[in-house]
Amino acid sequence: MADVVDIEYVRAQGGPRSTRAAIRRYTRGGFRSDFAVNPLFMERFVSAQLPEPGRVPALYAYLVSDASNIIVSVAWDAEAYDRRTPAARGDAGRSLGHAWRAARATGSIALRGAGGEIAVPWSSAHRGATDAAAGRIAGHVPPLSGVVVVVRLARDEGLPSRPLEEGVAAADSLSATLVLSVESGAVEAATAAALLSAARPGTIVISDDESVLDRLIEGASSGTTVVVRGPHSEISAASLVELATESARGPVAPLWLGWDGAIASAGVGVHDGRPFHLLAGLPVEDALALGPALSPWHIAGGTFARRVGDDAAVHRTLTTSVVRAPSSREDLRRDASAASDSDLGSLAEQRGWRVVGWGESGPSFVRRPTMATLNDGSRVPSLRWALKIAAPPGPPGEAWGDTHFARGLAEALRRQGQEVVIDAYAARNRATTSLDDVVVALRGPEPLHPQPDATSLLWIISHPDEIGERDVDGFDAVFAASQTWAAERSAAWGRPISPLLQCTDTRRFHPRGTARGGRFVFVGTARGIARPSVVEPVRAGLPVDVYGPDWRGYIPSAAIRATGVPNADLPPLYEGARAVLNDHWPAMQRHGFISNRLFDVVAAGGRAVSDDVNGIAELFNGAVVTYRSVPEMLDILGSRLDDSFPADEQLVQISEAVRRDHSFDARARTLLQTVLQQRQ
User: Residue 54's pLDDT is what?
Assistant: First the structure.
């Protein structure tokens, strides 16, 4: 028995009175409805670190799996406890159970404080957590002054650990009072907030409702800087700090993006006495092109910063800081009858647009034609390109190769004098597509369609098994990242499909002189399967460092170096690896779609070992060694690897050839030439 059920804490939530009944309620669905059995364990936070989040109770998965390096709470540091108390890992309930029982026995527990761990009396910390879980949270806001960071937490926050962490980091950076305002019924958020307040002087937990900000501001002294993270909002600590700093010049808000990734509001504008959301429905690139800040009639959204008593007429929206939150029309209920019209004409002129009409949601624009002069002196039309990708917006999309592929292509097209925006999958049909001259559908696992009023290109870069003849209908030109598949489908479907292989960003991926080490490297997700290219080398005892978000349960945690790698850190990681391990989706391997990662590795001066795909040998001239079976792979990795690859001076030449012939710039030139021919 794990012995981790805190029955007093369970009863505070209205739960059963016995441990057995509490476990039964938790495992039979309570874990999905914010029912918790231990105050030191955040269900959704832990679930997000495990494979298949939400499918099974996270506490159960924690207890039966390799729990090393799992962070169980924003308020209690399980990893630090493991380091101090190695024996805890083998105890009932692992470190969680050991720490909880030790806290009750000793009367003390170390919680996360502003400067590290702080020992606090368990009785008071437990009482606070139990009261919070029961909904016994004070509504009174004490008088405030200085800088105050307010984190508002709704009952149905998707992952309350993230705003809590960002709020703590912002408050620490600003030496600010931290107010955690929690809506009734949010057990996980309220418990963690109570434990944070137990170890952090200057941290206040209050109940959240529609009047909370009025109550807070009424009790604050004049000049107090109030920074608010609104409910259901996704914003970084760095952006909250920037808001606090910029509020010295008047009320300020971040650029507000909707959940689809398009702009929800750049502030409230006014036309004929009616408010509207500035730039609503446009891609974020359009706001960034207008400068670091805009001056709307009024800031918009539930995330903002202002100084108490500041009646500054100028409100600002920072395009350099963004918040993602649900779209809302709440700000449009403001009385704008006496306000002057916003100077939208000047704003549109900055972007090279003009206003051609007004509707219920605001203005409509057209783009003025312009020309661009390239480095060779030639002049080409400067068109507006929209790159459509299958990746989701925001942080989840950062784990997708499609996101970084689109960014590399966008930068290359801009170097060709083009204007480029990127639409995440949820924004593929945004309301402002009429501005776009060219659409490039970077086809992955999800369907993307041509746009009738634009030149539409389809570039199939993955998942060829999901592409049918109808999927290419309506596109002005179709490309595929495989020589063989392009030829086969052209013949079968009776329409030209041109080969256009994947490529690399040569501005980032190039040799830097990183010394080659002795460890293999793999970067990527588990895809929900035990990928042999990773699992088998690890099982064989080879030195493999894995970087990816969902490998727990497939390999020991000791092999998982991190859940991801910043894109800027990939080139030296690839160059310095003994070899980079790679494999392909089965359909991509069958149809000759060579992974983008191989182009990046070789361009960076690295070496790779990959499953065999038609064309790899010709493309990479030995810098990628291939295998056809697991035993062959293990034989290659376990042998004198240097004998399998060309000499270092040859690798330099191969890298140069890849960067010359397979760069995003080369692909951008091909796409631009195709579009110009189509538009003639």
Answer: 75
The 10 Å CB-count burial string (b at 16+, else e) for 4-13 is bbbeebbebb
Q: Is 553 helix (H, G, I), strand (E, B) or coil?
A: coil
Residues whose CB is less than 8 angstroms from the CB of residue 57 and which lie 6 or more positions away in sequence, other chains included:
26, 27, 31, 43
Under 8 Å between Cβ of 300 and 331: yes
The DSSP secondary-structure symbol of 213 reads: H
State the CB neighbour count (10 A cutoff) for residue 184.
Answer: 11
Phi then psi for residue 545, to 5 deg, are -105, 120
Judge contact between 390 and 383, C-beta under 8 A: no
Same domain, yes or no: 406 and 471: yes
432 has pLDDT over 60: yes
Write the DSSP symbol of residue 259. Answer: T
What percentage of the chain reaches a pLDDT higher than 90? 86
- Alpha carbon distance 31, 23 (integer Å): 10
Tens digits of residue pLDDT in 488-500: 999 999 999 999 9
pTM over 0.70: yes
Q: Is residue 165 domain-shared with residue 249, that is, in the same domain? A: yes
Can you give the CATH number for the domain in which 489 is found?
3.40.50
Give residue-wise pLDDT tens across range 570-621: 999 999 999 999 999 999 999 999 999 999 999 999 999 999 999 999 999 9
158 and 234 in contact (C-beta within 8 Å)?
no
Which CATH number characterizes residue 643's domain? 3.40.50.2000
Please state the domain count of the chain. Answer: 4
Give the whole-angstrom CA distance, residue 615 versus residue 545. 27
